[in-house]
Design goal:
Helix content of chain B: 25-40%
Structural class of chain A: alpha+beta
Number of helices of chain B: 17
Strand content of chain B: 5-15%
Number of strands of chain B: 12
CATH superfamily of the largest domain in chain B: Type I PLP-dependent aspartate aminotransferase-like (Major domain)
Shape of chain A: globular
CATH topology of the largest domain in chain B: Aspartate Aminotransferase, domain 2
Radius of gyration of chain A: 13 Å
Distance between the termini of chain A: 11 Å
Strand order of the largest sheet of chain B: 1-7-6-5-4-2-3
Distance between the termini of chain B: 58 Å
CATH class of the largest domain in chain B: Alpha Beta
Largest sheet of chain B: 7 strands, mixed
CATH superfamily of chain A: RNA polymerase II/Efflux pump adaptor protein, barrel-sandwich hybrid domain
CATH class of chain A: Mainly Beta
CATH architecture of the largest domain in chain B: 3-Layer(aba) Sandwich
Number of domains of chain A: 1
Number of helices of chain A: 3
Mean pLDDT of chain A: 93
Radius of gyration of chain B: 25 Å
Shape of chain B: globular
Largest sheet of chain A: 6 strands, antiparallel
CATH architecture of chain A: Beta Barrel
Number of domains of chain B: 3
Oligomer: heterodimer
């Protein structure tokens, strides 16, 4: 299972990557493997606000529909529109082309509360 | 005498060939008809004479044109490609796919019942009304409730009815509550019904014994909680041991307990939801009381309630008058109709017949044998499949292929497909969601010991093949003997083609 060292994680299997003060967010390799083939991704509208731990969207696979939770509070500044036509990118490249949203955090200290790679790996074992 | 063979193994099911059945569109010949009115004395009118010009389509709708002979052959061939409860064992956990006794269909086909118009006055339908009143009384006796509506069309309609009753109850007390609690192991329809009923879902966790986590529940409870939706036995097939504490905690904050009747089969005649503290109970007649199942129904999902909710039930309800006759009455503060006329009456008649067929002692035996069968299967699989939450189960057991998957690559989906080659319908797979590689097996009371043994042998064989051959095992290629092999579910969902004119 792939858990890149440079990313931060939630216990709900989201990853977050700091990019110039903003956070790119997706679901982990562990999550996509557990879900199976992703067939639909529902994401919030750009400009909407999310709360840490609150619903961010849904990922539907051939097995189930799963909630995605916001790793931090903030404003959605970008969503991955290419997932509408190609949701399989979440399976193929969960840390790359399969990213979900970019959040502008309202409280940058919330990032510090996220898990590092070692701590996240421990939650999946 | 030689040992009896398993009556529920469908290996001899005749299948003529492996060609894809054409669609009706592909069988269509312009001008061909399945019926004609050669000798009609009615005058003929053209569409232009009957329908205002602005409502007429510019060109005819593309509909298939086939003869009756070809039409019947098409659907008969399709029906021969179905696995059904009439064909063999169908251990689809959570669905209670028990065999439906044919006498119930015979009763429903009787003209004395089937040919009665729902608008006929009560003076002409006393028999029907008596039957509906009796059914309601029996369902209330089984569940320990005060009264019931027979209107809801199926399980999800029953859930919505229950939530609307919950809403009306709180509104009548001048309260606006916004949340309904659901355990993590719940059926997917529960959160959907909660949302449709205008409430927010709050999920509570599962403890290490597979029950509702009481600490998690108490943390979620406050006076904003309208109620909780539970099944008992739970979706893991386990009896909810803390149900009395759960009921007390929910009632303490003024919430109501909703019982999802999905798993009632295990407790018939043994324990009643009303005695556990539930306020609203829905029943799946198509599960517990063996009315036909799936394929869009018609189903029936009666909702029974405790005394303080009777005044809100949908109406009109069949009632017993003080003079011994029967009639219709709508409760004073009814939430209104939930179905046209009187619900799916012929399904209700089938359930009434099933109850009469079994009697109280028979229903108790149904539950006892259903529970025995599920525990026997679980015992056979122990040591080969993982058994999360390993304690005595009720009417179904959840096992897991997690270790098999890690060691041999065998997934629950592979087991499901290989089982078809061995003559059985698959158990439910990947549900409940809290168990990885879940296989949820519900044999029901209607399968014989011979069939159960053959089913267990098949599941063990699949595991052994994987342990010996790994990725080269038969399960990875299965099913090879069915008219359609493994379908690409992901592509079907990603590139949905729902109608013939959308075809690639």
């Amino acid at each position: 299972m792939n858990v890149p060292e440079e990313l931060r994680y939630t216990s709900d299997h989201e990853w977050a990557k700091s990019e110039d003060g903003r956070l790119r967010v997706g679901i982990t390799d562990f999550a996509q493997d557990a879900l199976g083939d992703v067939v639909f991704v529902e994401l919030p509208a750009p400009g909407s606000t999310v709360e840490k731990g609150g619903p961010l969207g849904e990922v539907e696979s051939t097995k189930s529909v799963s909630q995605i939770y916001a790793p931090v509070s903030g404003t959605i500044v970008e969503v991955n529109a290419s997932l509408t036509d190609a949701p399989e990118q979440v399976n193929a490249e969960p840390y790359g082309a399969g990213w979900l949203v970019v959040i502008d955090p309202s409280d940058s200290s919330e990032l510090d509360a996220l898990l590092d790679a070692t701590a996240y790996r421990a939650t999946t074992e | 005498m030689s040992a009896a063979l398993p009556g529920g193994r469908a290996l001899s099911a005749p299948l003529m060939g492996h060609e894809t059945e054409p669609t009706l569109f592909e069988l269509s010949v312009s001008g061909r008809r399945a019926s004609s009115f050669r000798t009609s004395s009615l005058p003929e009118w053209s569409a232009e004479e009957l329908v205002p010009a602005e409502l007429l389509a510019a060109s005819p709708v593309e509909l298939p044109e086939v003869s009756e002979r070809d039409l019947v052959a098409h659907f008969t061939r399709l029906s021969h490609r179905q696995y059904s409860v009439d064909l063999g064992a169908y251990p689809l956990g959570s669905c209670t796919m028990k065999y439906n006794p044919k006498v119930c269909d015979e009763a429903a086909a009787a003209a004395a019942f089937a040919h009665v118009h729902p608008a006929a006055p009560p003076s002409c339908t006393q028999g029907w009304l008596e039957l509906l009143v009796e059914l309601e009384e029996q369902l209330c006796a089984i569940t320990g409730m005060s009264a019931a509506t027979l209107q809801p069309a199926a399980g999800a309609a029953g859930e919505l009815t229950g939530l609307l009753l919950m809403r009306r109850y709180h509104e009548a007390r001048g309260e606006t509550r916004t949340r309904v609690i659901i355990p993590g192991s719940a059926h997917g329809t529960n959160p959907a019904s909660v949302t449709l009923g205008g409430y927010q879902v709050t999920t509570v966790g599962t403890n290490e014994r597979g029950g509702v986590d009481l600490d998690s529940l108490r943390a979620a409870l406050d006076d904003d909680v309208a109620g909780i939706m539970l099944t008992n036995p739970s979706t893991l097939g386990l009896f909810e041991e803390d149900i009395v504490e759960i009921a007390a905690a929910v009632h303490e904050v003024g919430g109501l307990l909703y019982y999802d009747g999905a798993n009632l089969n295990a407790i018939l005649g043994i324990v009643r939801p009303g005695d556990m503290g539930f306020d609203i109970v829905h029943l799946n007649l198509h599960k517990t009381f063996a009315t036909p199942h799936g394929g869009g129904g018609p189903g029936a999902g009666p909702v029974a309630v405790s005394k303080h909710l009777v005044q809100y039930l949908p109406g009109p309800r069949p009632v017993r008058n003080s003079d011994g006759t029967f009639g219709w009455a709508t409760p004073e503060h009814s939430i209104g109709r939930i179905h046209s006329w009187h619900g799916n009456a012929l399904v209700l008649l089938r359930a009434w017949t099933y109850l009469r067929l079994h009697g109280a002692d028979g229903l108790l035996a149904v539950a006892e044998i259903a529970v025995l069968n599920a525990n026997w299967i679980k015992g056979q699989l122990r040591g080969t499949y993982d058994i999360p939450y390993d304690r005595p189960v009720m009417h179904e057991c959840v096992v897991s292929a997690e270790t098999l998957e890690r060691e041999t690559g065998l997934r629950a989906l592979d087991v499901a497909k290989r089982l078809l080659e061995l003559g059985f319908h698959s158990p439910t797979v990947y549900f409940p969601l809290i168990v990885h590689e879940a296989l949820m097996i519900e044999p029901t009371e209607t399968e014989s010991p011979q069939t159960l043994a053959a089913l267990a042998d098949a599941l063990l064989l699949i595991a052994r093949e994987a342990q010996e051959a790994g990725e080269a095992s038969a399960a990875k290629q299965a099913p090879r003997t069915t008219p359609v092999r493994r379908v690409d579910e992901a592509r079907a969902a990603r590139k949905l083609v729902a109608t013939y004119d959308q075809r690639p």
